[in-house]
Amino acid sequence: MMAAGLRALWAAGHWLRLGPRAPFIAGFSSRGTAGARTEPGPSLTRTRQQDGIRNIILSNPQKRNALSLAMLRSLQSDILHEAESQELKVIVISAEGPVFSSGHDLKELTEEQGPGYHTEVFQTCAEVMMLIQRLSVPVIAMVNGLATAAGCQLVASCDIAVASDTSSFATPGVNVGLFCSTPGVALGRAVPRKVALEMLFTGEPISAQEALRHGLLSRVVPAAQLEEETLRVARKIASLSRPVLALGKAAFFRQLPQDLSTAYHLASQTMVDNLALPDGQEGIQAFLQKRKPSWCRPAALAEE
Amino acid sequence: MMAAGLRALWAAGHWLRLGPRAPFIAGFSSRGTAGARTEPGPSLTRTRQQDGIRNIILSNPQKRNALSLAMLRSLQSDILHEAESQELKVIVISAEGPVFSSGHDLKELTEEQGPGYHTEVFQTCAEVMMLIQRLSVPVIAMVNGLATAAGCQLVASCDIAVASDTSSFATPGVNVGLFCSTPGVALGRAVPRKVALEMLFTGEPISAQEALRHGLLSRVVPAAQLEEETLRVARKIASLSRPVLALGKAAFFRQLPQDLSTAYHLASQTMVDNLALPDGQEGIQAFLQKRKPSWCRPAALAEE
Amino acid sequence: MMAAGLRALWAAGHWLRLGPRAPFIAGFSSRGTAGARTEPGPSLTRTRQQDGIRNIILSNPQKRNALSLAMLRSLQSDILHEAESQELKVIVISAEGPVFSSGHDLKELTEEQGPGYHTEVFQTCAEVMMLIQRLSVPVIAMVNGLATAAGCQLVASCDIAVASDTSSFATPGVNVGLFCSTPGVALGRAVPRKVALEMLFTGEPISAQEALRHGLLSRVVPAAQLEEETLRVARKIASLSRPVLALGKAAFFRQLPQDLSTAYHLASQTMVDNLALPDGQEGIQAFLQKRKPSWCRPAALAEE
User: Would you tell me how many other CB atoms lie within 10 Å of the CB of residue B149?
Assistant: First the structure.
């Protein structure tokens, strides 16, 4: 449904309308070539980038967008692709079909695959989740449907998450004898402990509204407005100074686990560093002169 | 009301219907014999266990289920009783009468009792609260009424908490000149800081809905549905693999205070260990073969 | 509006009615004399203290109550003024005009001022925020209007925050090229991570209801009831034992970042120490004797 909607938007030239300054960057795709066991195959993700917004779409709806090792590598590669380019301002991760992602591919977790392979799967998954946090641009999850297990972990790991009001979220590993311990890392840092534990112990889903109430989501909208609302947030971010956001994002995660005094020491230094950035002074000057700021690398969407 | 309801359920043979495989375990009771000052007396708690679900009922409604030293030891003993038995899958802590628990017995906190005794009271209380977290099975609080001070702490310390919509929660120690510092340990880890501080500084109660909104509860239902809803959650947990839940619960609390990288390292290893459990592979195989899993130690309620 | 309301209350002698035991303490004002660059000027804050309640009012509505260095020092001085006096039981920070505070004064953050001055601004700001937490009495933010950037940080840093339902909160620094990194320290500890990051990355405001839902506020009321409701909370706190609250507040913040076992060790010791306070035993005795406690230093409002 969402994917169809996206295709319609693209067909209408809405989202991908070429801006005057941001050259169209063709979709690139990854096949997870890093793994010895991974055969080349059809791409599991699709990407488009326009006006600073990179959309990465999980595109294996037949397999409920399972986060197989190949899918994880495809996602990782799509995130890392020219990640430090000034053209990239924000990433939106969405999915094709009614399931955002059902989590790990259980066929990869059988006894035959062995603990070495299992370890590779979980480590790669953890790397992708931590990459989202380490990345210099904000990452938004746009969820329309069911997100379970590592799929729920992916939502919890994004910086911002917008979901349709019919979406739901679960960590149902206990039903197949596999406690969602790695999803619990992200979930336990996103929602209150009692919410996380009931989800982990019972495997039962929570609604989008419950997920919003408890901090797993930033925003819930009717399905029909999901893309528009997500795009609105992404465009806003894309209109801002990339170096300023990169500095701020890194500082936020660095200070968060510190004691208050250390946190303020780090953050105060970040503020001073931020003011020393060209965009820092440009922003202040523009404000004092009551004009729009003109960032070092102007955002294509700044005029909208 | 709740206790009457429970008795009615039992009389009707509903809850305690004997399953074919889980032998009835008679209620056992504790009198807190460990303390030198504690006189043997009528049991302060009642317990029943059936189909993997142990119900521990605070049963001193005349004293508003005060967490006296004897009550704490009775509760501790009931939790620890054959806690590693494979027959035990989940614990539900509830209470008789309109007050879930009013917290410490202030008669035990007078100057006459002296600081040594005070220390014993608070240390025992802290042991019980930490025991709930360390226990290998999930612990659910089923609250119908008022939970204050250490009673509120008990709710906050359980893994899951289901409450009737007429329940309320407070840390009113300031009214008697005793700031709820130990309840604040559990409360401060369950709800946002501003909610915890307003409760601690003013002593005023919050409603069940507020407690749900802020993470102190997992679920709120009308009083008439409290037992059914709690039992539904407990039965779901009892139908799952005990070793899998034990592994997952321990890992969740171990990773939670760690930095993200360490947390993922621990949790990834837990996932690999989980897959090496017999129930881990049984669950995966059952899923791939589209059949119900048959855990090593089948749960009595799996058929329901 | 609020300020007008406050003046009306004062004119009517309502709030500042002299109690029999608490002598009227004249408003004092600060001009931030510590800074070499700060010129003496009209006071940026106003204060009144009565019946144990100190009201500090940001009083520079023409400048949207910007937290300039002078304003920060004025606020700091007003907080510290005889802060250990037994007459002071609780502080309420409010503001004159439709903007609670717009955060730092951007004129102080220009390149001309230089990094040394910038550092002084952010360090002073951090000192004030940490002072609120270290202070021995509770600090309440009473918000009627817009609180942005360091103004939002101030709300997040108070122990309790009551706001009118038309208030809103934002960290819009990204719009002027200055990521709200120091406000993020307080915000990131008050609300879920996804809420904080969306606010920080987009700069968009959240409503009072959203702020309440996510833990930034303790309480939201219609604007017409804001002062009454805040005063009710403040009076309740002022009626309690100052030493008990001071002990409890310090212990709460000391135990919060600790692991559970250390936290309980600290808090249990605090409980024993609390019981050894004269007011600790007075409270317990009063409760057991079914009478009102009479704290060592009776609160003027205890009769209300």
Answer: 24
C216, C241, C264 ranked by CB distance to B182: nearest = C264
Question: Among residues A9, A25, A98, A53, which one has the least CA distance to residue A237?
Answer: A53
Q: Where in chain C is the domain with CATH 1.10.12.10?
A: 242-303
User: What is the dihedral sign for C-alpha B274, B275, B276, B279?
Assistant: positive
* CATH number among 1.10.3470.10, 1.10.287.110, 3.40.30.10, 1.10.12.10, domain C242-303: 1.10.12.10
**What CATH code is assigned to A2-238?**
3.90.226.10
Mutate to test the interface with A, among B264, B277, B282, B301 (most CBs of A within 10 A): B264
Predicted TM-score (pTM) of this structure = 0.88
Contact C267 B109 (CB under 8 A): no
Q: Give, for all 304 residues of chain B, the pLDDT tens digit.
A: 334 433 333 333 333 323 333 333 445 544 443 433 444 567 899 999 999 999 999 999 999 999 999 999 999 999 999 999 999 999 999 999 999 999 999 999 999 999 999 999 999 999 999 999 999 999 999 999 999 999 999 999 999 999 999 999 999 999 999 999 999 999 999 999 999 999 999 999 999 999 999 999 999 999 999 999 999 999 999 999 999 999 999 999 999 999 999 999 999 999 999 999 999 999 999 999 999 999 986 544 444 3
Strands (E), chain C: 45-50, 53-58, 90-95, 99-101, 139-143, 146-148, 160-164, 168-170, 206-207, 219-221
What does the CA dihedral B224, B227, B231, B232 come to, rounded to 10 degrees?
A: 10
Residues of chain B with CATH 1.10.12.10: 242-288
- Suggest the residue from B272, B277, B294 to mutate for an interface test with chain A (most A CBs closer than 10 A): B272
A108 → chain B, closest CA residue: B284
B242-288: CATH topology is: Lyase 2-enoyl-coa Hydratase; Chain  A, domain 2 (1.10.12)
Q: Where in chain B is the domain with CATH 3.90.226.10?
A: 2-238
Taking the CA of residue C115 and the nearest CA in chain A, the distance in Å comes to 6
- The interface pTM score, or ipTM, of the predicted complex is 0.87
Taking an 8 Å cut-off on Cβ atoms, the answer to whether C248 and B195 are in contact is no
Which chains would you list as touching A if contact means 3+ CB atom pairs under 8 Å? B, C
Structure tokens at B96: 């008789």
B233, B280, B281 ranked by CB distance to A202: nearest: B233
